[in-house]
C-alpha cells in the first residue's frame, strides 16, 4: 500500500477529508460554502416542496458552467438519474452528501477525492438534452442529504451551521404596518433560505439584502429590473404583488405603506422563517 493510500485510509477512519492537494482537514459545517451566490435562484426550496418534490434549489446558469464542490469529499456519478438526469454526488466525511443534478458532463471519476471549490461537473438542463432529466431549461439543481438519509436545504445547513442557530420572534409589523429590526431580520432569513443571501441576520437591510430580494421577486413576482440592491418603485411593486398573496388589497403602485408592509409581514411571519 502506498504512502498516499495509507494517508487516505487513516483519514477515512478518522472522519476527515483530503483536499485536492493532499491536505488533510476536518469536515464541519464551517468548511462548506454556497458556490452559487452569483446566480439567481429560479425555484426555491419551498417551491419544490409545495409541488411534491423532496426539495432542492435551482440556480439559473448557462449550459457548461463549471460546478464547484460546496465542501470536500469523494465523488459518485449517477448517469441518467431519473428526473434528475446526470447527477454528481459528493460524499462528505461527516456523513452528509451533496447532489448537483441535470449535468451536461461529469468531470471526475467515481471515488475521486476533492476539496471545496474543485469543479465536479458541468451544468446542463437544456430541455431534451442528454443528462437533463425532466429539466425544461438550463440550471443546476442543488440539495443535500443528511446522515439519516433525509434531503435538506443546503443553505439551511451552511447558514445554520448544520444545527440551527436560534429562532426569531414574529414581527409586530403584521399588526402595526411599521417595519422594524425584527421584521428585517425575518426578511433577511427569508432571502437567506429562498434567494441565496449570505449576509448577517442583523435587522439592518443593505444592498445584499435588497439584491437577494430582487432576485426572488424577479423569479416569482414579475420584477424586471436589475438585482442591484437599490430598491425603487419597480422593486416595491413586485413586493406588493407578493403582499397581495398574503392579504394586501391595495394598489400595485410601488409606494409602500402600512397595508403593504402588513402583507409582507404575514409572508415573513411563516413558521418556516423562524429558525436561523
Question: Can you walk through the features of this model?
Answer:
- Helix 6 crosses helix 7 and helix 7 crosses helix 8 (about 260-270).
- The strands form three sheets. Strands 3, 4, 6, 7, 8, 10, 12 and 13 form an eight-stranded antiparallel beta sheet that branches. A three-stranded antiparallel beta sheet has the order 5-11-9, with no helix packed on it.
- Helices cover about 30% and strands about 20% of the residues.
- With about 280 residues, it is an alpha+beta fold.
- The radius of gyration is 20 Å and the shape is elongated.
- Strand 6 and strand 7 (about 85-90) form a beta hairpin.
- It has eight helices and 13 strands.
- The longest helix has 15 residues, at about 180-195.
CA-atom Rg in angstroms: 20 Å
Number of strands: 13
Largest sheet: 8 strands, antiparallel
Q: Can you tell me the residue ranges where pLDDT is under 50 for at least 5 consecutive residues? A: 1-30, 160-165
Lay out the secondary structure.
Elements: H1 3-14, E1 16-18, E2 24-26, E3 41-43, H2 45-50, E4 57-60, E5 66-68, E6 73-78, E7 87-91, E8 97-101, E9 103-106, E10 113-114, E11 119-123, E12 139-145, E13 151-152, H3 154-159, H4 173-176, H5 181-195, H6 207-220, H7 233-244, H8 258-268
Antiparallel strand pairs: 1-2, 3-4, 4-12, 5-11, 6-7, 6-10, 7-8, 8-12, 9-11, 12-13
Give keywords.
29% helix; 276 residues; 3-stranded antiparallel beta sheet; disordered N terminus; 19% strand; alpha+beta
Short description:
This protein is an alpha+beta fold and 276 residues long.
Amino acid at each position: 500500500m502506498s504512502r498516499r493510500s495509507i494517508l487516505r485510509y487513516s483519514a477515512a477512519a478518522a472522519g476527515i477529508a483530503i483536499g485536492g492537494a493532499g491536505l488533510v482537514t476536518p469536515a464541519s459545517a464551517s468548511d462548506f460554502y454556497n458556490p452559487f451566490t452569483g446566480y439567481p435562484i429560479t425555484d426555491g426550496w419551498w417551491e419544490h416542496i409545495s409541488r411534491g418534490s423532496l426539495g432542492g434549489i435551482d440556480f439559473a446558469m448557462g449550459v457548461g458552467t463549471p460546478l464547484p464542490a460546496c465542501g470536500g469529499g469523494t465523488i459518485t456519478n449517477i448517469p441518467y438519474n431519473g428526473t434528475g438526469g446526470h447527477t454528481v454526488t459528493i460524499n462528505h466525511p461527516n456523513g452528509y452528501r451533496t447532489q448537483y443534478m441535470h449535468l451536461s458532463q461529469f468531470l471526475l471519476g467515481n471515488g475521486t477525492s476533492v476539496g471545496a471549490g474543485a469543479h465536479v461537473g458541468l451544468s446542463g438542463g437544456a430541455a431534451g438534452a442528454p443528462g437533463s432529466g425532466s429539466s425544461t431549461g438550463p440550471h443546476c439543481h442543488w440539495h443535500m442529504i443528511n446522515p439519516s438519509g433525509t434531503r435538506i436545504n443546503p443553505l439551511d445547513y451552511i447558514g445554520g451551521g448544520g444545527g440551527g442557530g436560534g429562532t426569531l420572534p414574529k414581527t409586530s409589523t403584521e399588526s402595526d404596518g411599521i417595519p422594524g429590526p425584527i421584521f428585517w431580520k425575518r426578511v433577511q432569513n427569508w432571502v437567506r433560505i429562498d434567494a441565496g443571501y449570505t449576509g448577517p441576520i442583523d435587522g439592518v437591510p443593505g444592498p445584499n439584502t435588497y439584491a437577494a430580494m430582487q432576485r426572488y421577486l424577479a423569479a416569482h413576482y414579475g420584477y424586471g429590473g436589475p438585482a442591484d440592491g437599490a430598491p425603487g418603485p419597480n422593486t416595491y411593486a413586485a413586493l406588493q404583488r407578493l403582499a397581495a398573496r398574503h392579504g394586501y388589497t391595495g394598489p400595485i403602485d410601488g409606494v409602500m405603506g402600512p397595508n403593504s408592509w402588513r402583507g409582507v409581514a404575514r409572508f415573513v411571519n411563516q413558521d418556516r422563517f423562524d429558525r436561523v
